[in-house]
């Protein structure tokens, strides 16, 4: 049985990311940490609703299984 490798997210640490989640949700924030399951800790997070409203939500933990897409908004 092969061993799972942790996600290669070190280059995204302390960078601003845009993350699309299941159920049409989206969050933008600065990556502060992650684990082998791709659970993320984001700081200075902003939730973007479907109607265009933006809500500041501070520091959040996002479960890896709800992430659809991850995009860096800062230069790597």
From TrEMBL:
Give the principal location in a single coarse category: nucleus
Q: Name one GO cellular component term.
A: U5 snRNP
A Pfam family cross-referenced in the UniProt record is LSM
Q: Could you name the domain of life of the organism this protein comes from?
A: Eukaryota
User: For this protein, what is any one GO molecular function term?
Assistant: RNA binding
Which CDD domains does the protein's record reference? Sm_G (cd01719)
- UniProt keyword Ribonucleoprotein, yes or no: yes
Fetch the SUPFAM superfamilies from UniProt. Answer: Sm-like ribonucleoproteins
For whether the record's keyword set contains Nucleotide-binding, the answer is no
Sorted alphabetically, the Gene Ontology BP terms of this entry are: spliceosomal snRNP assembly
| Entry keywords, A to Z | mRNA processing, mRNA splicing, Nucleus, Ribonucleoprotein, RNA-binding, Spliceosome
InterPro entries named among the record's database cross-references: Lsm7/SmG-like, LSM_dom_sf, Sm, Sm_dom_euk/arc, Sm_G
* Subcellular location(s) of the protein: Nucleus
Specify the Sm domain's residue ranges. 4-76
Family assignment from sequence similarity:
Belongs to the snRNP Sm proteins family.
The protein's job, in short, is:
Plays a role in pre-mRNA splicing.
The family database entries (PANTHER family) matched by this protein are listed as: SMALL NUCLEAR RIBONUCLEOPROTEIN, SMALL NUCLEAR RIBONUCLEOPROTEIN G
Q: What is this protein called?
A: Small nuclear ribonucleoprotein G
Q: Which organism is it from?
A: Diatraea saccharalis (sugarcane borer)
């Amino acid at each position: 049985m092969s061993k799972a490798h942790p996600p290669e997210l070190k280059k995204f640490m302390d960078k601003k990311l845009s993350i699309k989640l299941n159920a049409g949700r989206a969050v933008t924030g600065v990556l502060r940490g992650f684990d082998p399951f791709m659970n993320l800790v984001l700081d200075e997070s902003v939730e973007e609703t479907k109607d265009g409203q933006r809500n500041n939500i501070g520091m959040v933990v996002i479960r890896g299984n709800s992430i659809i897409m991850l995009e860096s908004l800062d230069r790597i």
